[in-house]
TrEMBL record:
<keyword id="KW-0472">Membrane</keyword>
<keyword id="KW-0997">Cell inner membrane</keyword>
<keyword id="KW-1003">Cell membrane</keyword>
<dbReference type="GO" id="GO:0022857">
    <property type="term" value="F:transmembrane transporter activity"/>
</dbReference>
<comment type="similarity">
    <text>Belongs to the ABC transporter superfamily. Drug exporter-2 (TC 3.A.1.117) family.</text>
</comment>
<dbReference type="GO" id="GO:0016887">
    <property type="term" value="F:ATP hydrolysis activity"/>
</dbReference>
<protein>
    <submittedName>
        <fullName>Amino acid ABC transporter permease/ATP-binding protein</fullName>
    </submittedName>
</protein>
<keyword id="KW-0029">Amino-acid transport</keyword>
<keyword id="KW-0812">Transmembrane</keyword>
<dbReference type="GO" id="GO:0043190">
    <property type="term" value="C:ATP-binding cassette (ABC) transporter complex"/>
</dbReference>
<dbReference type="GO" id="GO:0005524">
    <property type="term" value="F:ATP binding"/>
</dbReference>
<feature type="domain" description="ABC transporter">
    <location>
        <begin position="25"/>
        <end position="264"/>
    </location>
</feature>
<keyword id="KW-0813">Transport</keyword>
<comment type="similarity">
    <text>Belongs to the binding-protein-dependent transport system permease family. HisMQ subfamily.</text>
</comment>
<dbReference type="GO" id="GO:0006865">
    <property type="term" value="P:amino acid transport"/>
</dbReference>
<keyword id="KW-1133">Transmembrane helix</keyword>
<keyword id="KW-0067">ATP-binding</keyword>
Length: 268
């Protein structure tokens, strides 16, 4: 009798999640036209927790529009985005809709142009948004901000203002500022394209470190070597469509002429 009440062993009752883990971010049927010109066509993309996905493709293929749409900076004509298994944003939804407001702090964004507040110090830049959203006690937040500056190698610059820093340093601060919010996913829109060439690698190294730590990231980039080295999947876009969505190894095997022509063009 006692034995009959024992719970069944977990291995028999629990399904394996490895093959069908729940996506942390799900884009479904996203489409967009500007002034009658279609720039995104039926984009579907599923991002698993911990995945690093690079979005590459020719200029004008819709990469930036797509990533801005995911965090509500651009409206969509059709489709929807789910974040952490919940509705986040959908076509026709108002910007102040409840699901969006409830979840927007879980989505980090790093821009081409850093977008730091010029009249705030580095440390103030990190603490501003979390304070607004009342995420933590001031002391916890202060400690976490310093830890994030340390992570990106900017701790010694905590009291400086953005104009006292190089572009690469400003971008590292912008990355730390995003991480302080403890985002579930971080979106990067060409994070190194506004930098002097000699400043690119310091930012890529920080992103690589985050990839190793298992932070989920969606990265629009023109840095091909970097994209193929750190990504779990590379998404190749052309004329508003996802043409290829595969691992770097699979893409090398495929030898698809479109992607190879594109990478050749980038290299010359
Ligand atoms: P990518 O990031 O791949 O270079 P974009 O997403 O920036 O591509 O642009 C895709 C297309 O959408 C381009 O043809 C661009 O000119 C157009 N586009 C982007 N934003 C706007 C806008 N606000 N108004 C009109 N057209 C736009």
């Amino acid at each position: 009798q006692a034995r009959a009440r024992l719970p069944a062993p977990q291995v028999q009752t629990r399904k394996s999640h490895s093959a069908s883990a729940k996506p942390i971010l799900q884009l479904t049927g996203l489409s967009k036209a500007f002034n009658g010109k279609t720039v995104l066509r039926d984009i579907n993309l599923s991002v698993q927790p911990g995945e690093v996905i690079s979005i590459i493709g020719p200029s004008g293929s819709g990469k930036t529009t797509l990533i801005r749409m995911v965090n509500g900076l651009e409206t969509m004509d059709q489709g929807s985005v789910e974040l952490l298994g919940q509705e986040f944003i959908r076509a026709g939804q108002r910007e102040n809709a409840l699901p969006y407001r409830a979840q927007i702090t879980r989505l980090g964004m790093v821009f081409q142009g850093f977008n730091l507040f010029p009249h705030k110090t580095v440390l103030e830049n990190l603490m501003l948004a979390p304070r607004l959203h009342n995420l933590d006690s001031r002391e916890d937040l202060h400690q976490r901000s310093l830890a994030m500056l340390d992570k990106v190698g900017m701790l010694e610059h905590a009291t400086k203002y953005p104009h006292q820093l190089s572009g690469g340093q400003q971008q590292r601060v912008a990355i730390a500022r995003t991480l302080v919010m403890k985002p579930a996913v971080v979106l990067f829109d060409e994070p190194t394209s506004a930098l002097d060439p000699e400043r690119v690698s310091e930012v890529l190294q920080v992103i690589e470190k985050l990839a190793e730590e298992g932070i989920t990231m969606l990265i629009v980039t023109h840095e091909m070597k970097f994209a193929f080295a750190i990504s779990d999947r590379v998404v190749f876009m052309e004329q508003g469509r996802i043409e290829i969505d595969a691992s770097p190894a699979e893409i090398r095997q495929m030898r698809d002429h479109r992607i190879f022509r594109f990478i050749d063009d980038m290299a010359t």
